[in-house]
Structures are given as C-alpha cells and as structure tokens.
Amino acid sequence: MKSKELKTERRARWSWYFYDFGNSAYASVILLAVYSVYFLNTVVGDADGRGTLLWGVSVAIAAIVVALASPVLGAIADVTKHKKKFLIGTTLLSVVFTALLFFVRQGDVFLGMLFFILAEIGYRAAQVFYDALLSDISTPETIGSISGKGWAMGMVGGILALVIIAVPIQLIGNHIIPFAFIITAIFFLLSSIPTFLWVKEKGEDNPQPHEKPLILTAFKQIGKTFRSIKSYKEFIKYMVAFLIYNDGIMMLMDYAAIIGAILFGLETVQLIIFVILIQATGAIGALLFGKIADWRSSKEATLYSLVILTLSLCGLFFLERGTSSGMTWFFIIGALAGFSLSGAQAVSRGMVVQLAPPEKVTEFYGFLSVAGRTSTFIGPLVFGVLSHGMTDWYLKQGVGENLALQYGVLWGIGSILLFLALGSFLLLFVKRVVAGKKSAQTE
Questions:
Q1: CATH numbers and ranges of domains, the chain
Q2: SS3 category, 430
Q3: Cα 22 from Cα 293, distance rounded (Å)
Q4: Which long-range CB contacts under 8 A does 177-182 form with residues at least 24 apart?
Q5: Per-residue confidence (pLDDT) for residue 206, from 0 to 100
Q6: Tens digit of pLDDT for each residue in 315-348?
C-alpha cells in the first residue's frame, strides 16, 4: 500500500476514534455521573423512589423511538450510502438538547425528561451509524482491535470531560452543575468533527439506484432481509443473546450513579471520581478484550467479559454500607465492572460486522439496534419499577426511608444479574466466528 493511502487510512481511523472520544463525554456526564443524580435529587427531589422510576421511563421512551426508527434509517443509509449524513443529523440532535439541559432546574420534571429524551434519542441513534462505519475503516483481521481502540479512546474522552467538570464543581459548588451540560455538548460536538470530515464511507460516491419515494425502498430492503432471515441464523441467535445481556449492561450504565448515591451516599464529585475510575479501567478492558477477539474470537472475548462483570456485581450484596471499607470495596467493584463492561460493549459491535453480509452491515446494525434499544426499554424500566415497588413495600413494612431505598436498589441489582446470566448462557449457543473470516465461515 502506498504511503499516501496508509496516511489516509490512519487519519480515517483516528477520526473515527475521536467520535468515541466525544460521545463518551455524553455517556459519562449525562448517564453515569452527573445528570442522572441531578435529575433524581434536584429536579425530582427523590424521597420515595419516584425519581428512579421516572428516570427509567425517560430512558424507555427514548429507547422505543430509536428501536422503531433504526431499521428503517439503517436500510436507507445502506441504499443511499449516507451513513455519515445520518450520523451528523443525529449527533446534532443530541448536542443541542444536551446543551438545553442547562435550563432544567428544581421542579422542572417534564422539561428535564423531555430534553433528556431528545438528547438520548440523538445519542443512541447516532451510535447505529457510527458503529456501522467500523466496516469502512477496518478489515476482518483488525476489526476487534480497532473497535477496542475506539472504545478505549472513548474512555479517555469521558475521563477528560469529567475532570474538566469536576474541578469547578469542587472549587465553586454544586450550584454550577447545569454548566456541565453545556460543556458536555461542546465537547461532544468538537470531537465529532474529525469523523464528519475524514471518515469516508465505502461506495458513498456510487450510491445504489433506488425507487421513489425512498421510504418505500427502505421498507422493501427490510422486507428482503426478513424473507431471507433464515440464512442468518447465527446473527439471529446472537441478537437474542445480545438483547438479554445488553439489558443488564444498559441497566448498569443508566443506574450506576444512582446506585452509588443511594447505597453509599456519594456526592457529585465523588461520583465523578468513581466514573473516572470506571472509564480508566474500561479503556484497559476495551483494548484487552479487543485483542482477545482478534486472537481467539469475539464470542469468547464477550463471554469472558460478561463472567467478570456478573461476578463483580455479586459482590455488591456483601458490602457494609455506611462504612469507609464498604465504600472502598464499592470503588474496587466499580473498577472491575468498568473493565469488563467496556470490553463486552467494544467486542459486541465487532460481532455484527463478522456475522452480517457486507452489503447489509448498516441494516444489520439497525436490527441489532432494535434488540439493543428494546433492551434499553425493558431493562431500565424493570429496574425502575422493581426498585420503586420494593421501596414502597419496605416503607409499608415500617422500614426507614433510607434503608427502604437501599433495599429497593439491591432488588434492581438482582435483576441486572439475572439478565447478564441468561444472556451469557444463550451466547454459548452462537457459533464461534473465526477471526479474519466472514459470517459464513465459522468453526
């Protein structure tokens, strides 16, 4: 390969990595460390678990919208070769409404839910097109490591965004938390620009001819995939397993900060430090499990990561809450969870490229998004309803408010473990894809 082509290829990969760098700022600040707890404690003023339930409902609404739209948008992107244009549009949607969270204050429950739902729709929908671009900047032999590097880059971006936000909050106080949402939006936007400029979609200069209107072409394309779905049995088996174990992953991501705040009373800066730790170990996990995926298989790498994640979460039931040693162990468990969770997510997106036919990669990402977004709908809602219901039950039994909230959260953690265990079991039945070969070539 000529040096100019190598340089172009390297620039495209690094540009793709930088999108992960930016969108992880959203995940770290909005989902993990700051906004989720701000919504719970400030916007709603949680006393009986209502904030936990409303947070789950917000996540679920966004998930349903993305689940319904993703297959159609994915099919249109495959036909028109406009993955990047869809990525730009959905990213801007997320950036704008993330910035608008600045205006959400105490008691603004509807506004806080609305702006978050729209930001979340943009964030989740953009991931469909961003992940699909992985096939344009990698080869079957390098897909695992490149996906892992992108995820690791994302962890670094999340850490940097949290540090930028944590310092002024620590120095000035929690009343400046709304400014964190504007900073996050700017960080996300600026980091996305290299992908918009320098990642080139294969075939974008030669889109497929299509019927008019375009939406009919999209549904026709989806119909063809449905009719031939029996040819992709391994993908279907993987999608079912992914749907279930991804429930556990999404529940943990959406409720990590809430778990820390309720079980151990972590304040905003402590939560930011906790998430920074998760991101740091997550970067290592993404790189390591990406390498394992290339050396062995994506299936094995995913299974290893899920086992570590499940075992680490089991430890939460044995911690002494309200003690310094218990909090220390909570941080250790968080580090292990971040290490394994990021590994599972980084490798999972690479499996789609391995299992899907080349001409349907984006569409298959759309179908996987249906599974993933359905997971995002079911999982957090299960956590929220179960936690709220059990909190209410314990309160009626005369248990104190704080203890009832903690018991409710522990029931929610139990549901996470159930989803992870069942999804891992089903993944055992998916054939092991040989590194460097396409979906039809399995061991």
A1: 8-202+213-427 (1.20.1250.20)
A2: coil
A3: 25
A4: 177/34, 177/38, 177/42, 177/268, 178/101, 178/102, 178/103, 178/104, 178/105, 179/102, 180/29, 180/34, 181/29, 181/30, 181/34, 181/35, 181/98, 181/99, 181/101, 181/102, 182/99, 182/102
A5: 57
A6: 999 988 878 888 899 999 999 998 998 888 878 8
Give the model confidence (pLDDT) of 376-421 as tens digits.
678 888 888 899 899 999 999 999 888 998 999 999 999 999 999 9
Q: How far, in Å, CA of 296 to CA of 434, rounded?
A: 7
pTM, to two decimals? 0.77
Is there a contact between 41 and 266 (Cβ–Cβ < 8 Å)?
Answer: no
Q: Per the structure block, which two tokens stand in for 416?
A: 């996470």
pLDDT grade for 239, boundaries at 50, 70 and 90: confident
CA 232, 237, 239, 240 dihedral sign is positive
Q: What is the pLDDT of residue 440?
A: 39
Contact (Cβ atoms closer than 8 angstroms) between residue 308 and residue 336:
yes
CA dist., res. 323 & res. 282, Å (int): 26
Provide the CA 159 distance to its chain's centre, in angstroms: 16
As a whole number of angstroms, the distance between CA 198 and CA 169 comes to 35
Length of the chain: 443
pLDDT at 437: 47
Q: Do 312 and 252 contact (CB within 8 A), yes or no? A: no
The rounded distance, in Å, linking the Cα atoms of 47 and 23 is 32
Question: Which is nearest to 26 in space by CA: 166, 146, 120, 105?
Answer: 120
C-alpha 71/C-alpha 272 separation (Å) is: 35
**pLDDT given for residue 320 in this prediction:** 85
Radius of gyration of the chain (CA): 21
Cα(371)–Cα(378) distance, integer angstroms: 10
Question: Which of 198 and 293 is assigned the larger pLDDT?
Answer: 198
The distance in angstroms from the start CA to the end CA of the chain is 31
DSSP H or E stretch at residue 68: helix 50-80
Residue 435 in this model has a pLDDT that exceeds 70: no
